[in-house]
Amino acid sequence: MALLTQTHEQYYNGTAFGTYQYVTLADLINNFIISYIGDDKMINTAKRTEVAFHAQRALQELSYDTLRSIKSMEIEVPPSLSMTLPHDYVNYVQLSFVDDAGLEQLIMSNRLSSTPEAPLQDQNYRFLFDQNGNLLYANKSETETRWHAATGINNSRQDTNIDFLEEGYGYNVDYGKRYGINPETATKNGAYYIDEVSGRISFSSDLQGKIITLKYISDSLATEEEMKVHKFAEEAVYKYIAYAIVSNKMDAPEYRVQRLRKESIAAKRKAKLRLSNIKIKELEQIMRGKGKQIKH
Hints:
Elements: H1 8-12, E1 22-24, H2 25-36, H3 48-65, E2 70-76, E3 82-84, E4 89-98, E5 104-106, E6 108-109, H4 142-149, E7 191-195, E8 200-203, E9 211-218, E10 228-230, H5 234-247, H6 254-275, H7 280-287
Parallel strand pairs: 6-7
Antiparallel strand pairs: 1-10, 2-9, 3-8, 4-5, 4-9, 7-8
């Protein structure tokens, strides 16, 4: 039986492009039960719910460093200077703003600020409580308020009009010369920090109104449509499930557990190499300029 369930016309006139390269999680579970579970198979007995649990765990684990699970989201920074994290966000890869040419300019993370919780205080600096005895908190901390009110990432200096590289300016005569600059903050592209607790990204004020692109890692478990695995990593999922099921059995021989563990690691490594998508011609073109002589 053919794997395609639609005609060429239905595919090219539809919206689900490129789906042939993926296998759904439901098909993975069915294939594993047929191929790996039985009296004369590697695993004698296993419940379908057990297979489904380990299949989801395999999909989650492989999404972090093996599968093509990097997504992107584009928004315009609102006046509130904050962005809600995507529903399936696990970790970020890169944040950048889009310039007039459509190129992504990297934005550096700011490690010098945060969004702390701010309990309300009275004139005697004592905490305020509600009728149930719970602390009352401000809608926005003073730290975040001052961060948003500032004019840029390097705005903590009292006088932003001072030329710190100007010769003869007191103790700053060697600023950027003897000690050098801090590359982390040597940028004009703005800054951001991520508040994991509230699930928001806070931007500096110089990014207001700009188009931001967030590239992030998803665990591929948020919706049914996202529960799919690339065919290059299909074997890695099977080996992971088999190792997870056998290793949890009390009467499983240790040699079988270790064998499946090695097979799982090898299958994951092979899937990672296949999905790395390294093209020799593209690499050759990139490396052409690496041998240029640098004149002094």
